[in-house]
Amino acid sequence: MPRKIKHHDYEDVYDDSYDYDEEYDYDYDDNEESAECHDMPKADRSDGKTKIWRCLSCTYDNPEHVSACGMCSTIRSASLEESQASASGTAAMSNPASTTTKASLDITAKVEAEIVEDNAKSSKEPAPSSLIKADKHEKRENGVLREDKSSSNGLVSEELQKLSFSTGYNFHNSNKVLKNAVPLEEYKAEPWMLHEQSEEGKNLLHLAIVGHVDAGKSTLTGRLLHLMGRVSQKEMHKYQREAKQKGKESFAYAWVLDESPEERERGVTMTVAVAHFDTVKFHVVLLDSPGHKDFVPNLIVGASQADAAVLVVDASTGAFEAGMDGQGTGGQTKEHAQLIRSFGVEQLIIAINKMDVVDYSKERFDFIKSQLGLFLRRCGFKESSLMWIPMSVIENQNLVTSTSDGRLMSWYTGPHFLESIDLFKPPTRDISRPLRLPISEVIQSRTLGQVAASGKLDAGAIKVGTKLLVMPAGEGAIVKAIEQDGNELNVAKAGDSVDIGLQGIDSSILMTGGVLCHPDFPVPVARRIELKVAVLDIKKPILFGAEVELHAHHSKEAAKIVQILAILDPKTGLVRKKAPRLLTANQSALIEVLPHRGICIEEYCNYKPLGRVTLRATGKTIAVGIVTRIIEQQ
Asked: Residue 193: its pLDDT value, please?
């Protein structure tokens, strides 16, 4: 899940002789026992009322209600947990039924009456609270097992049948809503939505930072925020002091964004961090993405919001080659480039970092440009949309000012990194379509209330007081407040990343991967979809009935490939072979996929951001593609 880094603008005026340690009054305790007391596992701090489950891949402790690990995104397997519990001799703890108190929200009686009336019109089913408290076995039957019984091929594995999903929604409300849906062609935008932005306003640009592990992504973003005045010198001095105490002085700038103890201990970014800064032309939303292969699902969830991207490459001898090949396993430079292209990103900066290690060699720069450029063109990037920037983040060369090093000045005369961002073309926004806001995170805020969600508007617009629909639950709500980067807004339009406070709905209805949409034009909840995919450079073929992870916007669901319809010509899209037995590397194909639970998704021709998908298996991305048809809805 994207996590937001709160920074502010500072006047970077300070005295080098000032003793910052005295003001901060650092107290470093060498007593290991006291440190252990502060770093107790979550399970030890539990009061016994909140159930948790431990991920078998990364050992992260997750709340009972989530179906996938919040750190590594591994889908929860009930069968493996039961076998592990029996081996260790532990018994499952049962919690007596308890009543949940409603969040203290400032909801007027009038708003409550409107919501109840709207929901009564759309459905006579039980209230949302009763739906959520449905029996676990009943939920599984409504989700996985019932679909398995109706399937003719019976290829769902026993392990995936026992998956415990997070919400277990009863979809009767969404069924009623979708039956009453109005065709998209009949939608007419309201005049306030089409009001043009003032000349003083800057275009919003979501910029994803991707690349192979240890290429210097977090160091680049941290130093950039410091140079732009978003991190004060006092804060930077604090990070440097903490990094030195841990023996990791070179990680000081990376720690601006890598805040968690796990990230700092391992020295890798695990989740997408969000920060903001301004250029001459854009208000930039920076998405610092993980580079380690174990956390690619987190990159997919966060960086799928990107309008443009920066691919950071390590110029060191051997490091670039590892990112491109990875000793035959496929480096993350390649995988990240393919993923961001599948997200619809067309404009790309290639930041060739650590040029100081190779003495700012033009030969090394040209070699990387020729090797990587060939691959990027194969991914679908146009040469005119690529910008190649040599730099050294550690030596602050070519970041926010032109280089001062003679070795680089002798052959490079192009723009520096910050100037290259302003060379991007402003992204187009789909304001005149019905509202679509995929939920990236369910949050709580003192200003927004206990029921709030974060996300980027992919289409449409909202304002305070707008009625909307929460899918896949099919429940109505009203916008209570809107915030962007901590600032209150009255209106938000397509392209804006916002936090939205809601009223007239329970917080348990919200879920990551859900979608806030127009009440009359709800997003489909698909149970069977047709995909046009491009198979990546895989080692093992994709077979009929293969178990996969389906990623779409912020949603990820277990799924299976139920049919391989045809192999397509990658250039013309024409059918080469019908009903093949398998798919191999670098093929294009038309397939049918069956999610184990309904997923909020759109056909690519209607909403491009919600119509893009990624398929992963065994910890690797195996295919990317688009939704060509929704065969069956929830």
From this structure: 80
